Here is the input.
Amino acid sequence: MGGALSQLCRLIRNYLYESSKLLQSTIMCNSLFKAAQACLGAQSIEEKVALTQASAELWRHGELCLGDDEPPLPIGDPGRPATPVLVAPRDLHARKLSSLEGQAALIHAICHIEFNAINLAWDAVYRFRDLPTEFYHDWVKVADEEAYHFTLLREHLRSFDYDYGNFDAHNGLWEMAQQTAHDPLIRMALVPRVLEARGLDVTPGIMAKLRGIGDLKAVSILEIIFRDEIGHVEIGSRWFEYLCQQRKLEPTSTFRELIEEYMKGSLKGPFHKEARLKAGFSEEELAYLEGMG
Ligand SMILES: [Fe+2]
Ligand SMILES: [Fe+2]
Here is the structure.
């Protein structure tokens, strides 16, 4: 296994070295922040996934450092392929799950969330500096897992002759990244603990629907995603609490204030209590959420 991993690492490094000038500079300066920037900027699907996997591998092997000679750039749009076309959520067409097209549209919607999640994780690494090394370790791991989730769903889509980009999609996840780019505490509260946590609530219902139409492959992929996403939300909870502690803020009331400020005081339920408890929500927070759901 170790030999295979180091061979994979070598292969990817060669790929990176040869594929573009930006990537060459990433490798030479050995900065995790530069690697995160390159992953964010990658436009093609293949490049974003390969770079993410390679960067995570290099980080795990201690081959990237936390230095950077430049502060992070203001948040813009991440690199993404020309399709899917991004439209307002109200312009997305609901398709019946009873058709193959409807089934593909549902898988595509989740695939799009995972593609965005790769960018969201790398942006947390890139943007927020001077945090403990463990913060970067956690978010590199998330980026790597999101690339895995994306790849599983894309392969499944391709197995029935669709692909990522075939349907329109919305940009809600990245808009939240932009709104929270100024503060890691707010990012941790609203991206993992609101957006990713919503995935925990709705995934079991989606799995039941897919099981109902006999798409057991999609169900097995969603089982992996559900398990990993509990971990992502837990990472968000842990760093949210850490940042609250640093600023001498009480986490529950701070979370509540942020929901009021950014989400107009309302989150959609019902909430998956068991999964959210595993992911670091307190009973008090859940009672508050249930009061609004
Ligand atoms: Fe994911
Ligand atoms: Fe995630």
In short: The pocket of fe (ii) ion (ligand 1) is lined by residues 114, 117, 146, 149, 225, 229 (CB under 6 Å). The first helix runs from residue 2 to 19.
